[in-house]
């Protein structure tokens, strides 16, 4: 997975870079179809905004955003949000596969 990081209105410190890499490098465990993730860190007024767009080869691209007063907290919240979306997408795919497999077995029984 290719992880891109962009900062808007702030300097990307080594601490921010390492937190982003730590939190998002393990997204691969939720899906082997993730091709890239783009994280954007922005400061607007006193709001610390973290956004991510995850590109998934076999599924819909996912987007999440978290806003707090602390950038590290925004990154942590963002990681939780995108992980929940990936789990939901994975569960839907598994359910669809099971349903499709059940329909095939059911049709074979009719013959």
UniProtKB/TrEMBL annotation:
Keywords: Translation regulation
GO MF annotation terms: ribosomal small subunit binding
TM helices/strands, residue ranges: none
Domain of life: Bacteria
InterPro entries given in the database record: HPF/YfiA_ribosome-assoc (IPR050574), RHF-like (IPR036567), RHF/RaiA (IPR003489)
SUPFAM superfamilies listed in its UniProt record: Ribosome binding protein Y (YfiA homologue) (SSF69754)
Keyword Amino-acid biosynthesis appears in the UniProt entry: no
Quaternary state and interactors: Associates exclusively with 100S ribosomes, which are dimers of 70S ribosomes.
NCBIfam families to which the protein is assigned, alphabetical: yfiA
Name assigned to this protein: Ribosome hibernation promoting factor
């Amino acid at each position: 997975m290719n992880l891109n990081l962009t900062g808007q209105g702030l300097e990307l410190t080594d601490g921010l870079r390492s937190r982003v890499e730590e939190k998002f490098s393990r997204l691969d465990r939720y899906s082997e179809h993730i091709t890239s993730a783009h994280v954007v860190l922005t400061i607007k007024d006193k709001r610390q905004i973290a956004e991510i767009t995850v590109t998934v080869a076999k599924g819909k691209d996912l987007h999440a955003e978290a806003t707090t007063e602390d950038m590290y907290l925004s990154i942590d919240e963002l990681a939780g949000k995108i992980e929940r979306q990936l789990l939901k997408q994975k569960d839907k795919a598994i359910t669809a596969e099971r349903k499709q497999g059940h329909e095939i077995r059911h049709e074979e029984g009719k013959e």
